[in-house]
Amino acid sequence: MKRKFKCIVFLICLVPFIAKSQSNKTQILILGTPHLQQIDGIEAPMLDKVITKLDSFDFDVICIEKMSGELLYDIQSRQDSAFDGITKGRFGAEFLSLADTVQAINGIAFLEAKKNVLKQVSEEKLTINERKELLFNLLATTDLPSAALQYEYINNKTVFATDFEKYIANIIEKKIASQNEYYSLAASLAKRENINQLESIDNLQDEALLFMYYPDFVQEYKDQDGPLDQINELPVYQKINQLSQEGVQANDLSNLYAFFNSNEYKQQDYSGQWEIWLKTNFPSGADRARYALWEMRNLQITANIMNVVARYPERKILVIIGASHGAFIEKYLEQVEHLEVLKYN
């Protein structure tokens, strides 16, 4: 009886600690963003207020809409021309080519570089030379955005002394100036938060699979006579154009980001751009496939986010991604136990 009493007392004492541990949910904010290079007249200072607002959340991890090196090399290894749009196009070719070059010049393999990165990014303080070494290891794993982040941390650029190092520095400087959300938004915020690496969470295989399964998709799209032709004229997309122009004129894109992350946008974008594929009637069923593969891509992105959650439990995570993905990913994440989906607005 005495032993039983001691067990009960122990459990009662343990309850507050259990309750406390269960309350520490991993928090995730899905930030819908425009693809900044598509905005005429975009300049980095237009994002200052957006970055300041995000900075107030005090994120531990930042994820971006880029495919990982493992996935890019996996797709390349298939030697399937159906995926040339990825490995030979703008979503993969540059990252793979630069990684291959760094691996060859520095005599380092992908797996070795990745192992080095995992060790180096966990260090609280890095010297300039350690950051330079990390930068080249990141490049060797196709992680150009994180390499650019490391470049921003290095104040003394004279450490890039050899011709090859200067060549790499020139590439990175051009990328930083390109007004892409990797660099103007994600890397800028990461530097404020003292984060060493951006996490790649995209999986851009949906269109390649669509054209593989349905080679006549484009022709069927052209042959259809219906609402698909008027998508760009819908009020939601007209409002985006208006807010973009007003934001450039005001040197502040805060209102544009507020709209992209509003329920109004998410509902109207779903109806205008995605639900519509369930209302058309392509002879082959390619329209239904377009919708199914879009869901597939967002599920794969969510799986990659959960991989990040597994490595950073009970932390605060930001996912910066094209705004059309937002509602889908939030829908999936809200079903996961021990996660809290934060809101931008």
Concise account of the structure shown:
This protein is an alpha/beta fold and 345 residues long. Helices cover 58% and strands 9% of the residues. It is globular.
Task: Explain what this protein looks like in three dimensions.
- This protein is α/β, with parallel strands linked by helices and 345 residues long.
- The chain is built from 17 helices and five strands.
- It has helices at residues 2-23, 48-55, 69-77, 84-87, 93-106, 110-120, 128-140, 144-153, 163-176, 181-192, 206-213, 217-223, 235-250, 254-260, 263-274, 286-311, 326-333; strands at residues 26-33, 61-67, 199-202, 316-322, 339-342.
- Strands 3-2-4-1-5 form a five-stranded parallel β-sheet, sandwiched between helices.
- Helix 2 (48-55) crosses helix 10 (181-192), helix 5 (93-106) crosses helix 7 and helix 16 (286-311) packs across helix 17 (326-333).
- The radius of gyration is 23 Å and the shape is globular.
- The model is unreliable at 8-12 and 15-21 (pLDDT under 50).
